[in-house]
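#structure-requests
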Amino acid sequence: MYGPTAQPRSSKEHPVLTIFFEALLVLVCVGVLAFAGLTVKKLYQGQR
């Protein structure tokens, strides 16, 4: 049933999609960290 052509899906099939989604993940992480940093900065400015 499982011959040599039935391979599990890996990232080698679509390297462009893998690069795209990894870049998207990095951008989301950077955006969340920037937003968190800005929020903390504004909170500490409001306490002065």
